[in-house]
Every structure is written in structure tokens, then in C-alpha cells.
Write a structure and sequence with these properties.
By secondary structure, the protein is of the alpha+beta class. Helix content is 15%, strand content 30%. The protein has two helices and six strands, in the order E-H-E-E-E-H-E-E. It has helices at residues 14-19, 66-76, and strands spanning 2-7, 24-29, 52-57, 60-62, 79-85, 91-96. A four-stranded antiparallel sheet has the order 4-1-5-6. A two-stranded antiparallel sheet has the order 2-3. Strand 5 and strand 6 form a beta hairpin. The chain is elongated, with a radius of gyration of 18 Å. The protein starts with a strand and ends in a 16-residue tail after the last strand.
């Protein structure tokens, strides 16, 4: 099994990280609402509301695709990597995801 990770560089603001897939850790409504129940704008909840602003977000995206990791590397920099795990769940290898390279592995099942 392969798990891909992307870490934003320092200086990327929380709302930008949130819009690009990072987990939300706190925010607020620009209209001052405490929930979306009485709001006429965001029927789909705060995650779809254009007036929601994220104040705190994770710097690490876990479980993204290699394509997403490369897109974020091109746009923001930072670093991305793949953890290769065996069937018992222990990690046996970590490889960096690099732009302009093929990140697939020949004979991947050999290690399993």
C-alpha cells in the first residue's frame, strides 16, 4: 500500500491551505453567523459557503494522489512524499515525490 503526503511551506495562509485540501481546524462566517442553519447563502453547509473564512488549517495533506501532490508542489512549493507500507501496516520505504519524474515503481509487489 502507498500513502501520499503533501506539506505546505511556511507562509501559506490557512484559508489557502483549506481551499487546497488541508483539514479545517477553525474559522468564521464573514456575516457573523454561528451556524449555516439560518443562512440563505450556504445551503450546502460551511464547507461550500463562499463567505466562510478558515483561520486555522493543517499544514499536511494526508492521503492525496500523486497528481494532487505534484500540482501543489508546482503551485506552492513545499514537499511531498510517498510512504510504502507492507500488509501488516508497517512502513518499509519512503520516497520523495519530484516534479518531472515518474513516481511509479517497477515490480512494486516484489516488496510485498
Amino acid at each position: 500500500m502507498r500513502l501520499n503526503y503533501y506539506e505546505f511551506p511556511e507562509g501559506v495562509d490557512p484559508h489557502t491551505r483549506y481551499l487546497n485540501g488541508a483539514s479545517n481546524k477553525g474559522g468564521h462566517c464573514e456575516r457573523g453567523h454561528t451556524s449555516c442553519r439560518d443562512c440563505t447563502v450556504c445551503e450546502g453547509g460551511w464547507s461550500e459557503c463562499p463567505r466562510y473564512h478558515c483561520d486555522k488549517a493543517e499544514t499536511l495533506i494526508c492521503g492525496c494522489s500523486v497528481t494532487t501532490a505534484k500540482k501543489l508542489l508546482r503551485e506552492f512549493g513545499g514537499r511531498a512524499w510517498t510512504e510504502h507500507c507492507d500488509r501488516s501496516g508497517s512502513c518499509f520505504e519512503v520516497t520523495q515525490i519530484k516534479l518531472g519524474k515518474n513516481n511509479s515503481r517497477f515490480k512494486y509487489n516484489h516488496h510485498l
